[in-house]
Structure formats: structure tokens, C-alpha cells
Design brief:
By secondary structure, this protein is mostly helical. Helix content is 79%, strand content 0%. The protein is elongated. The N terminus is likely disordered.
């Protein structure tokens, strides 16, 4: 059984997740590397415009790192800044990742309105990427159910599971994400009885 420490981000296929679980993650080492990479950006004599996509990627990864370690405000600052920069450059792929992180943050803080908003934005930005659409539908479903729209929430969660099943049939297994969607459906069932 694979234990998930990543709260669904990044969406990792089962085989890779098992390897990561065996290797382990060292938070202090990630902190040290993040500081070193940021220092390289700051010292870079290159064209600042060409570095912006890389800086946005670093902001995003740093934001997720802070969310994962529990520093929600710091994570939110990094993700929000990266999202603004991505939207300016029309980088929808990275914007989708930022929105995913902000959705996870709002699940933890219980802000259903913001969760629904970020979920809608994420679905629009994923541009046909079925994995990200599944994640966006999960976020929207959770938000709807928490706000009392139980049937709409279930519908979105069911669509999310269908997409994950389709991906599974194509050889892409995301068991941890499927388990999270199923858990959300179970929580709705318990809360609505």
C-alpha cells in the first residue's frame, strides 16, 4: 500500500510514488537547494525576461514545499505570485499547477467559496489535459458539497473518477488521486445522512 504524503500534488503515477516513498524526502535539503537556486537567479546576468518562466517554476515549487511543510501563508504567497506571473505570460500549464496548490490550501483552510473559484479557474486553464480536469472537478465537487449543493458535488466527483478510470485504462494509474476522490465522496455521504 502506497502512503501519500503529497496531498495529491504533484499527481504521481503509482510506480513513481512507490520509489519516492522508499527514498524519502529531506525537507532541510530541499530548503537549502531552494535558497541556492534563488541565489543563482539573483546573480544571473542573463536576460531577466528569459528567466521569468524559470523563476515562476521555482516560485511554484517553493509554494508547494511550504504548503507541504505546513507553512500555509508562505506557500500561498509563493503560489499567488507565480500564478500572477503565469497569467501575464499566458502559461496555462504552470497556472494550472498554481491553482491546484491554491485549491489544496483552501481545502485545508475551509474556504469553500475560494475553493470553488480556484476549481473553476483550474478547469478553464487545463486546456483539455484530462488529469488536471479530473483534479479540477474534484475541487469543484468538494466546494459544492461543502456549500450544500450535494448532488452537484457528487456529479463533479463522479466525473473526476470517470476520467481517472479512463486514464487507468490507458496505463496511467493515479491510485492516490482516485482514493482522494473516493474519500471526498464518502465524506459527502457521511455528512448528508
Amino acid at each position: 500500500l502506497v502512503r501519500s504524503r503529497c496531498e495529491g500534488f504533484p499527481p504521481i503515477q503509482d510506480g513513481i510514488l512507490k520509489k519516492v516513498e522508499q527514498i524519502g524526502t529531506w525537507t532541510k535539503e530541499i530548503d537549502r537547494l531552494t535558497v541556492q537556486i534563488q541565489a543563482l537567479f539573483n546573480r544571473s546576468a542573463g536576460d531577466r525576461i528569459s528567466l521569468r518562466p524559470l523563476e515562476s517554476r521555482l516560485q511554484t515549487l517553493t509554494g508547494f514545499h511550504w504548503l507541504w511543510t505546513g507553512d500555509l501563508e508562505r506557500g500561498k504567497r509563493h503560489l499567488t505570485k507565480a500564478l500572477e506571473e503565469c497569467q501575464e505570460r499566458r502559461d496555462s500549464a504552470l497556472a494550472t499547477e498554481c491553482l491546484h496548490g491554491l485549491c489544496l490550501l483552501t481545502i485545508r483552510t475551509g474556504d469553500e467559496d475560494l475553493l470553488g473559484h480556484y476549481g473553476e479557474d483550474m478547469e478553464r486553464s487545463c486546456e483539455g489535459d484530462q488529469l488536471n480536469r479530473s483534479i479540477a472537478l474534484r475541487m469543484k465537487g468538494v466546494a459544492m458539497a461543502r456549500k450544500g449543493s450535494i448532488e452537484e458535488g457528487r456529479k463533479n466527483l463522479s466525473l473526476s473518477l470517470e476520467i481517472l478510470e479512463d486514464l487507468r485504462n490507458l496505463g496511467q494509474r493515479y491510485s492516490s488521486l482516485s482514493a482522494m476522490v473516493e474519500s471526498s465522496m464518502g465524506k459527502i455521504a457521511l455528512d448528508s445522512e
